[in-house]
Design brief:
about 110 residues; mainly beta
Amino acid sequence: MSVPAKFENVTAQTKANIYFDGKVVSHTILMPDGAKKTLGLIYAGNYHFGTGAPEIMEIVAGACVVTLDGETEARPYSAGEQFSVPGNSGFTIQVDAGICEYICSFV
């Protein structure tokens, strides 16, 4: 899988989405077709997120370990990989060192 290096002709929202005292930060972009994505950074730590809509998380740089709600197996992901999260669910994401960069697509 190839993670996009840039998005053309998008609308970027300037107000950041800030979670966990600034340890997770993202910005929302709206695609020309109306699709919504967030581009973000996750600093070292362990965080749980709930989902409304289904999501696809693409790892741009760094690495993380993810456990989907309802599962016991934690799976590692690194740059160029992705995972899907069902709607009305959630996941725990752990970054052991450095920063994990991601693109979240709401599907």
